């Protein structure tokens, strides 16, 4: 009989141990509904106090050719030397103006095309035109407008058209040359979009 009582006592102690999970007299409390919700699987909420960061689309610039390919010859000195139509999207909401710069990466001292203070509501430029109200700087041909790409015969040059989203207008009375305008745009730029191309002759 004593052996049976000992066995029962051991079984009871084991059950109590499983329930209490402690030998100091404390017992586990049932979780509250809030505690259950906090650890529910599948929750993707960030920890309390962490900000949710939304990724915006990058500023994009579109030309009549795919970026990284050869320019259509009609926009070069061997064609009609027209300025190309351009379009862009996804500019930052703080944009107060746009600017455009065409550079020859193999002849960086040559000014092809510099425009600033394009109205922030404008998202396209038509072929062979400059945006109304924008400031067009003098190019290396001593003209205010587009100087068509024209690398030396037997060579291939790489070019970039860069669209600047600006946080403020450029003071074109103070900064009127192409180089000074580019410098000022770099000081107030929010984001840039580029279209790269090559031309061989």
TrEMBL record:
InterPro entries, sorted: PEBP (IPR008914), PEBP-like_sf (IPR036610), YbhB_YbcL/LppC-like (IPR005247)
Lineage, top ranks: unclassified sequences, metagenomes, ecological metagenomes
Species of origin: freshwater metagenome
UniProt cross-references to Pfam families, sorted A to Z: PBP (PF01161)
Spans traversing the lipid bilayer: none
Protein's recorded name: Unannotated protein
